[in-house]
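Hi W.,

Here's what went into the run:
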Amino acid sequence: MALLFMDGFDHYDPQVLDGDGNKLLARGKASYLTRDALRIAGRRAASYALRLPVGPEGGYVKNLAATITRMYVGCAVRVPTSGNTNSPEPLLMGVRDSSTNVSHLLKLGGDGRVYLYRRYFSTDTLLASSIATVARGVWNYLELYVYCASSGGVIQVRVNGVLDIDLSSQNTKQSQGDLLTAFLAARPGTACDAAVEVDDLYILDNSDTLNNTFLGDVRVDLLAPNAAGSNNAMTVTGAATAWEALSDSDEATYVQSTATAQKTTVGHSNLPSMTSPTVYGVQVVALARKTDAGSASLKGIAYSGSSTGAGATVVLTEQAQYQTGMINKNPNGSVQWTESTVNAAEFGVESA
Ligand SMILES: [Ca+2]
Ligand SMILES: [Ca+2]
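Here's what came out:
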């Protein structure tokens, strides 16, 4: 692992109701998402972002699959110019340890700068503030790095790609757990005091040679299936081909496996036109469920030049949820993805 998670907030509208009349947010890639979350226009044309409004429902929370000691979180944030009277310092983002007792928080100060706090149990301590100003009503790309250690801990904050806060020799662990949770707009389980809009979120650790430090201001693009692929072991229901079943936003059409190690991969739309893009990773997102009691799981997979790479195995529930599999490297040579290799590759799922 290296790049652990990303969310461009483009793949579903949390306010839409599913067949049971529930908001789709329960299916989201977030571990917890406020039911007040609103889909809004994104940072780029024809894309979406998320507004996390003021209210008792909290914000956006992501728990990792396992604790780590070094976490990097990057996200575009925009604090609206109005509607923030509940709090002088909107909470932008933060990371928390597994014991839930130590958080490192970024807030927007009354003077428009970013304020870094350490929260230990119920006490917030101001550690540093940025030089850069983060103007309200404008998208700014914030990145937070915490190295969790009893001594020699590090906290760094980058504002629009520039290192602005750099603290070393910190006790970031406080005899508590390692890092498990990243959150936006509100601490887990607490009210959201000020509306914050978010787009293009990433979380990574330093466990590999790729994607092991700040990525800078990045974008998350959604590529939808649009062509038949080379692996077709799963049965297709309700559509002529797997890619059609997987791209029509109709849950009555789907692919289904009846045994483990069945793979289905499909072609997809190309990356948007960009000048010399760097591709940091591919995350396969599958709205998936099991159909009976018992255990069932799947892996997101990439098929590139006859090589197959897989994300982590995820366990399915009986209700459909968006499951993610991160594939940091092109499996064909175990090298960094490029625009052309992503466009040529197929992606899909394998029953596990
Ligand atoms: Ca987006
Ligand atoms: Ca479908």
